[in-house]
Automatic annotation (TrEMBL):
InterPro entries: Pectin_lyas_fold (IPR012334), Pectin_lyase_fold/virulence (IPR011050), QRT3-like (IPR039279). This is Pectate lyase superfamily protein domain-containing protein. It comes from Linum tenue. Residues 1-23 form the signal peptide. It is found in: Secreted, Cell wall. It comes from the Eukaryota. Residues 43-73 are annotated as: Disordered. SUPFAM superfamilies: Pectin lyase-like. The keyword Calcium does not apply.
Length: 421
């Protein structure tokens, strides 16, 4: 796998390199020139708009904490390095992050969002492209935080990080239904250092995890653990610990009310487990190394679920699996996925055919269909090559995911069947 990836990278790299050479060089240069002119015109326009005000320094993302205290109405972008966090990953930066988080929750708010959740107006904790070592989960000192962004860098668990902790922990012990709303975690690499997990969303609602790389979570651990509603994961890369060794990339523990969308993500040797999925979308995601999706039964409910347009790659096993029995099923669509390698593609819609000479045709859909003994719709056509024969035929049975068609007289025929669950 790794060799393939390196090869792919090389291929892309060489294409990128070759393009300008193979393309019309003078045209390319013209484009570059036009781009530079556009850029300088934009910056002079910006300066005009800003009047006499000095241009903001490109280096400092935010004022220092001291300045912050004085300038109450400055934009709230908290650069963790100005709080003493070490962007080289050498020193432990836990204390610096704690101070940032407690400063942020002291900041001004404008009204509330969901009950008891304060609107922090989009305040940002900026990791400034650094790689920080932390020995405790990052948590807000109090619950009720909304409209905050954490962006742009890497976090790594230290060797004494708690093995049951998550690098970013949006959970609280408060009794309210929701503690965090509209928090965006973006462009982050989270390395759990085989100590704990990556991200924990508990009683957290409308959280977006966007373009994050979660890696090295523990054997019993989970890359992203979700127990709150209406969250979106997009462009999330989970790698290791592999499912084969007990790891779970994303775990949604919210039986009966998942309301989660996982799109455009990359499950690398590690899969997604969802308890009683209700309102769940998993789409356009790449499952590599035999990674798969598990629906785990708590009360046996699966409703309003789409697992579509995903790519699976691996040597064996089913792409979507059930743990336990499901008996309340509705609107579950698993379709349009593809496999490469020996994995068995599971779906809730399937087509099949069989040819025989006789009065009975049987198409067994058990290896394709996700739910056992459940065909809610079936259609078939019987195509006979026996000259002059116009047999009467009927669909006899769909029990046990097996379609049986019978005719009144023996004919040589093929039966095509399409079923859905
Ligand atoms: C089909 O079966 C019938 C009777 O069982 C037999 O007479 C006929 O030759 C068979 N046709 C073919 C094509 O095998
Ligand atoms: C349909 O198939 C099942 C399983 O083989 C069988 O138990 C049942 O009796 C069949 N039903 C009919 C109407 O033939």
């Amino acid at each position: 796998m790794r060799m393939n990836r390196d090869a792919l990278f090389l291929l892309i790299a060489s294409f990128t390199f070759l393009l300008p050479i193979n393309g019309d060089n003078s045209y390319h240069l013209q484009q570059m020139k036009a781009m530079r002119e556009l850029r300088s015109s934009i910056s002079s326009r910006r300066q005009l708009a800003a009047g006499d005000a000095p241009a903001p320094s490109p280096v400092s993302i935010s004022p220092s904490p001291q300045q912050m205290a004085q300038v109450g109405d400055s934009p709230r972008v908290y650069d963790v390095t100005s709080y003493g966090a070490d962007p080289t990953g050498g020193r432990d930066s836990t204390d610096a992050f704690s101070t940032v988080l407690s400063d942020l929750v002291k900041g001004p708010t404008s009204g509330t969002m969901l009950k008891d959740i304060k609107n922090f107006g989009g305040a940002q904790i900026h990791l400034a492209g650094g790689n920080y070592l932390i020995s405790k989960p990052l948590r807000f000192p109090s619950a009720g935080v909304g409209n905050v962004v954490i962006v742009g860098g890497s976090l790594r668990a230290s060797d004494d990080f708690p093995t049951d902790g998550y690098l970013i922990d949006l959970s609280s012990k408060s009794s309210s239904d929701y503690d965090y709303e509209y928090i965006t975690l973006r462009d982050l690499m989270l390395d759990s250092n085989f100590r704990g997990g990556g991200i924990f969303l508990n009683d957290a609602v409308r959280i977006t995890i966007d373009n994050c790389y979660v890696t090295h979570f523990t054997t019993d651990g989970v890359g992203v653990m979700i127990t709150g509603q209406a969250n979106i994961l997009t462009g999330v890369h989970c790698y290791n610990k592999a499912s084969g060794f007990g790891g779970t990339g994303i775990y949604i523990k919210l039986p009966g009310l998942s309301q989660t969308r996982i799109v455009n993500s990359y499950m690398d040797f590690t899969g997604i487990t969802v308890e009683d999925p209700v309102q769940l979308t998993i789409s356009d995601t790449f499952f590599l190394g035999g990674a798969y999706v598990v629906f785990k039964s708590v009360k046996g409910v699966a409703k309003g679920v789409s697992v579509v347009n995903n790519m699976f790659s691996g040597s064996g096993g089913d792409t979507v699996r059930l743990e336990g029995e499901f008996n309340e099923i509705g609107g579950v669509l698993v379709d349009g996925n593809s496999v490469n390698g020996g994995m068995n593609l599971k779906a809730t819609v399937a087509r099949g055919s069989t040819s025989a000479n006789g009065t009975s045709w049987t198409v067994d859909f058990n290896s394709e269909l996700l739910f056992p003994n459940r065909i809610s719709h079936a259609q078939y056509s019987l195509v006979s090559s026996t000259a002059g024969a116009f047999p009467r035929h009927a669909l006899r049975n769909i029990t046990g995911n097996v379609v049986v068609v019978e005719s009144d007289v023996p004919v040589t025929a093929s039966v095509f069947a399409a079923v859905s669950q």
